[in-house]
Specification:
Blueprint (H helix, E strand, L loop, with lengths): L1 E8 L6 H13 L4 E6 L13 H12 L5 E3 L2 H5 L5 H11 L3 E8 H6 L6 H5 L3 E5 L12 E4 L8 H9 L10 H9 L6
Parallel strand pairs: 1-2, 1-4, 2-3, 4-5, 5-6
Length: 188
């Protein structure tokens, strides 16, 4: 059975932290691929600052150089708020020959008790947690921990930097940085 990593998020914008997490988990867990699944409207956050097409384009630009990374638009196609349970059920139905590993940061590990039907979700998918500055991976749930180099980057920090006209060189892939500049994203 093929082992596939799932990295969900708003990716507004995607950055090197996302790519590092995906690659480190892929190697540690011996995954065939990692699928990046951008949310349409995240259930636990405000709406994205850019539209779905812009986020998909940036994510494709960010992942294009790695043959083990794929962009899956299942949640964008459904539109509205997406719950991980609904996404995993649909993926398991579409790809019954694959075993899925859902990758989350330590901030989300702490939030797991608040997830929609979390017990049912754990029966369907393997969780992989990665460390994040300021958070611990303490949980009663079965989450496999993968150590990754600590890079304290967040999309919200990058949006602020971009609004302040601060450089994001070396924090987002060059192709994403060019796209952001050409399309005047995150300027206000």
């Amino acid at each position: 059975m093929e082992r596939i990593g799932i990295l969900g998020g708003t990716f507004d914008p995607p950055h090197l932290g996302h790519l590092l997490i995906a690659e480190e988990v892929r190697l540690a867990m011996e995954l065939k691929e990692v699928w990046f699944i951008p949310t349409y409207t995240p259930p636990h956050k405000d709406a994205a600052k850019t539209n779905a097409d812009e986020r998909i384009t940036m994510l494709r630009l960010a992942t294009d150089s790695n043959p083990f990374f794929k962009v899956n638009t299942i949640e964008i196609e459904r539109s509205g708020k997406s719950y991980t349970l609904d996404t995993i059920k649909l993926l398991k139905k579409q790809y019954p020959e694959k075993e899925f590993y859902f990758i989350i940061g330590a901030d989300m590990v702490e939030y797991l008790p608040n997830w929609y039907k979390v017990e049912e979700l754990f029966a369907l998918v393997n969780f992989v947690g990665v460390k994040r500055s300021g958070y611990k991976l303490n949980t009663e749930y079965p989450v496999t921990e993968v150590d990754i180099p600590m890079i304290d980057i967040s999309s919200s920090m990058l949006r602020k930097w971009l609004r302040d006209k601060r450089s994001v060189n070396y924090i987002v892939p060059d192709s994403v940085n060019t796209y952001i500049k050409e399309n005047h994203l995150y300027e206000n």
